[in-house]
Amino acid sequence: MNSSIKENIRKIVGANNFLDSPEDKLCYSYDGTPIFQQLPEAVVFPDNEEQICEIVKFANQERFNIVPRGAGTGLSGGSIPVENSLVIVMTRWNKILEIDSKNLTATVQPGVITSQLQKEVEKIGLFYPPDPGSQNVCTIGGNVANNAGGLRGLKYGVTKNYVLGTEMILPNGELLKTGGKNMKDVAGYNLRDFIVGSEGTLGIITKILLKLIPYPSSAITLLAYFDKLGDSANSVSEIIAAHVTPSMMEFLDNTTLNCIEDYTHIGLPRQSEAILLIEVDGRGSIVHEDAETVKNILKKNNASLVKVADNAEEALKLKTARRSAFSALARRRPTTILEDATVPRSELPIMIEKVAEAAKKFNLTFGNFGHAGDGNLHPTCLTDERDNQEINRAHKAFEFIFNEAIKLGGTITGEHGTGLSKKQFLELVAGAPGVDMMMKIKSVIDENNIMNPGKIFSISPRCEGTMPRKREAIKDYSY
């Protein structure tokens, strides 16, 4: 990207919205994913859709790449710049445009912080359930781009279950509007769901229409301690089999709970091999009935102690501690690689064992936690990228974990996205026809391959090679 191109971009957005100094660009050269990093050519903060459209058309003309970005909390490398790229940051688009209490919807710009929206709708008795662990910093636009999940996914689903419509600038500069406030609409292809989870490869989201639901009037939070990992996993399977659907059912292994206790000092039992954090919610007596059923199953499966939160304040403290798992683990070693292998819920006990096997097999320290109720585990390797031998073993361990998950009928990602870090495994899940179809769709919509290229799809030959061994430039972004 030469100086003339940069000057034209500066004119489009204004000097105050354009950054290209090395210091400024460094802040946008990485996201929440370790290992990958690359400086962009420049960074812009557009004020309106017209500026974005003009930039996109200019990118097609001059053949530079565009990488959309929110808060940069992603864990798959989806917002990391590629070679010859301009980063378009959408965090200033942070207005809640409308809360429609008659239709139970909210219309927001992509830069709205997830927890900010939740707090605003809860003031009027409404509920936006998706709650990623980074909800206090991540943006709704990033949640939509990656189809983010969260602790409440078991009962309430993930981001895609709440997106009613979007507005998005396409790679040719046109504005695409999808969906609306209708609860039923089957006119043509469902382009809205096509956009959710596309990781910025199909366009730049500028507006989002979300579904809201009534806030649950009652909730009971339980914490169960286990001396054996297997007992905690069996408890999860039996609770689901008993036709109880908790709003959250979170698993923490010994390494993770000790890191959290070091971080929060809330009195977690350091000797326990695992704990389950469970919440049931809803209306009326059914909440207490479900809590009693859960408690009995936990005790049946050898829980050494089942504690019920005394009040909402204590429940919030426990849930906040769980949300701090990634931060707490990251304090242990210089590099923290957090993944999200997912399996059918019935296979959860086996998958937990496979993560422990990977740690032993490759002589690594793993913390394991996650959304046990929907089979979504977060095996987290605590390592040091400066130690080439150890980081190589870490990559091999994750290859082992992903392959074992796939053997169990699982997938390589439940909520983080494919991005850069897992694209070499995509064909193992989607199959060659599935990947080919995705690539054809991308090539039709983005003819010049300017929009976040190199993400999701593996380079040719497919299904070969491994994850990068150190922080390095991402130069091959073919699809």
Describe the structure.
- The protein is built from 15 helices and 18 strands.
- It has helices spanning 3-13, 22-26, 49-62, 114-122, 140-146, 153-156, 191-195, 229-241, 254-264, 286-300, 312-323, 325-330, 348-361, 388-407, 426-445, and strands at 18-19, 42-44, 65-69, 85-89, 96-100, 105-108, 126-127, 163-169, 175-179, 204-211, 213-214, 218-226, 248-253, 274-282, 303-308, 335-338, 365-371, 376-383.
- The two termini are 21 Å apart.
- Residues 459-479 have low confidence and may be disordered.
> Any guess at the CATH architecture of the domain at 96-214?
2-Layer Sandwich
Gap from first CA to last CA: 21 Å
Highest-level CATH class of the domain at 96-214: Alpha Beta
The fraction of residues assigned to DSSP E strands is 15-25%
For the largest sheet, list the strands in their spatial order: 15-12-14-13-17-18-16
Largest sheet: 7 strands, antiparallel
Total count of helical runs of at least 4 residues: 15
Q: Which regions have little confidence, pLDDT < 50, spanning 5+ residues?
A: 459-479
Radius of gyration: 22 Å
Say how many strands there are. Answer: 18
> What's the pLDDT, averaged over the residues?
92
Topology at a glance:
Blueprint: H1 3-13, E1 18-19, H2 22-26, E2 42-44, H3 49-62, E3 65-69, E4 85-89, E5 96-100, E6 105-108, H4 114-122, E7 126-127, H5 140-146, H6 153-156, E8 163-169, E9 175-179, H7 191-195, E10 204-211, E11 213-214, E12 218-226, H8 229-241, E13 248-253, H9 254-264, E14 274-282, H10 286-300, E15 303-308, H11 312-323, H12 325-330, E16 335-338, H13 348-361, E17 365-371, E18 376-383, H14 388-407, H15 426-445
Parallel strand pairs: 2-4, 3-4
Antiparallel strand pairs: 1-2, 5-6, 6-10, 7-11, 8-9, 8-10, 12-14, 12-15, 13-14, 13-17, 16-18, 17-18
Helix pairs in contact: 1-3, 8-10, 8-13, 13-14
